[in-house]
Amino acid sequence: MAETHETATLNRLRTATSPYLRQHADNPVDWQPWDEEALRRARDEDKPIFLSIGYAACHWCHVMAHESFEDAHVARLLNTHFIPIKVDREERPDLDELYMSATVLYTRGHGGWPMSVFLTPQLEPFFAGTYFPLEPRQGLPGFKEILSSIASIWRDDRRRVLDSADMLSRLVRDVTDPRRSVGREGEVSIASAVDHLVAAIDRTRGGFVSGATNKFPPSAALTLMLWEDYRARRDGRPRDELRELAALTLDHMARGGITDQLAGGIARYSTDTAWLVPHFEKMLYDQAQVASVYIEAYRAIGEPRFAETARDILTYVLDDLRAPEGGFHCSRDADSEQGEGRYYVWSRDEIIETLGQELGELICHYYNVTAQGQWEGHNILHVPVPLERFAKDFGIGIDDFRAKLDDARRRLLERRSQRTPPALDDKIVTEWNGLMIGAFARGGRYLRETRFTETARQAAEFILGTLCKEDRLYRTWSQGRFHTYGFLRDYACLVEGLLDLYGATWEPRWLSEAVRWSERMVAHFQDSASGAFFLTADDAETVLVRLPDTQDGAVPSGSSVAILNLLRLGWMLDREDFHASAYRAIQAISGRAASSPFGAERFLAAVAFAQADPGQIVVAGPREDPRTRQLLETMERLYDPFRVEMLRNTGDSDALDRLAPWLADKMPLEGRPAGYVCRGRTCQKPVTEPDALCEQLTAPRNGISPSA
């Protein structure tokens, strides 16, 4: 039986800004935060560092904490022979990226969290893994055994450790060298990349299988497919399968257990190929990206069900993840007192008891709830059959069934609220808030929801007013305190959100802020030699190597987001310096992206935009004039991902003209609001009627209308 501590003692994590670190404050392990004091102790005491990296919503982080970090024997081994350091990966993505590279190399392809890495006092990794059980189990070595063995080797065979550290550090430097990815933008074929995606997609339930059975929401891949579908139609070579496969994926995600069928919101990933059994944690960045791709699909395909799903996700974030100050919290955990996922699952008897026999039976059929359950004796609510077909099969009018379903959801949510909810990580991360600001702004604009636009506005005001100090961004904020200067992703994602907020409000202040932070981003993060964007600023702490930020994953790389921002701003403002920065960064990444779309989906979307000869649409007129609004609504109704849009509001045109002098001659026509359709700064004849603007926007290119 594991020996546990009986008397809680507080270590240095008790004052941490991260809720994840504070969860470990009463461990018997003498945890240190990553700071100069801890690193100096390792050097002064000549001890290796045990670096544990995780995050608050990580299930296996909790498992290892309970098994090992609360164990007195493990604590004595760590405290005696090591300097134990705990890091929240959401606060320090630079350390996470660096040592994850080492872990994947050391384990020959296996990464994840908790990440468990052993470092020399010079911060070079020499042994790495992820979750280790307390005792040996199922082919995994026991953590106590690992600690004892490494302590012995460090004491008796130091040269072996140093040789391993030297070799692994050299490999990390090699695989992260930005020169490995240099290529040319012309080498990247978007059509070929999309062909690779189409070949790999599950044609039964959509999505892409990761590892053995996992499926992650493929937001960036689906967006790329929808953009390529548009370009193919515009160029006279329609590929209907692209929107069909995107719709297939989105439909199965929306009806699957990965979606919270009662409260909205989406889990981080599915542990099976049917989207049924989620890893139940809810991350803010997933809500932002998945809501955005449903909005994209709604605009590209026109199906109202996609708008409904996007609305449900954004409403969930408003209800559960919005901070009182206006920003957004990080995540909801997968675990609660009842265990992993237990907050979300149901028994058939519980549903009947809550809803009564007649309605309960109907709802059990709809959500496929059975007496035996589909997961560990419990039921995960999901929708095997679309609502319209279900209502028809059961002989119920659609409106009648929707009313019954709304009533059932309300009552089941009330019942669920009596359970202990999963923990909330209340950190506010600038990067993820930028993504969420963009999602709410797009939701407000294209779903016609003013509350979403106002939510985006308030979040932007909070980030700009609280996490921006002395012309620098901070990464995180919690309980009134900052942690760490911002990384590339913080700047890039905030700028993306501000650009989308400009499109939702047409207020030049947001465009001005986007320019301000883009200029600082280029100054502090872009390499003058290679053109690559680094994850860390030029004056930030560098450990082993300064990492480029080029890999798209659960969140897009900072480079991918930055490139598209700079291209958009370059066309909006006639800024050649922004264009030049974007194209240099594209060249720095193209070599790697040309070989495979996986891990480069957002980058490829940026390249697609660069290759598409983007257009510029300008509406000139008073923002409150109904005729101006008609022109703007015509522009917004016609989907085209390869253009930039601006309003020269005659009420505040001076602010916009200072940003974009080329707009100064875009005026109303004979007192009527006018629309200008331009390409390469060459504009067609201005028009004042919505039908005329529509005709210009849908004019054939290469013989076919893009709306065909």
Structure commentary:
The chain is α+β, with helices and mostly antiparallel strands and about 700 residues long. Among the domains are: about 10-175, Glutaredoxin; about 345-420, no CATH class; about 615-695, 3-Layer(aba) Sandwich (Glutaredoxin), CATH 3.40.30. The protein has 26 helices and 21 strands. It has a four-stranded mixed β-sheet with strand order 2-1-3-4, with helices on both faces. Strands 14, 15, 16 and 17 form a four-stranded antiparallel β-sheet that branches. It has a four-stranded mixed β-sheet with strand order 19-18-20-21, sandwiched between helices. Strand 3 (about 115-120) and strand 4 form a beta hairpin. Helix 9 runs parallel beside helix 23. The chain is globular and about 85 Å long. About 50% of the residues are buried.
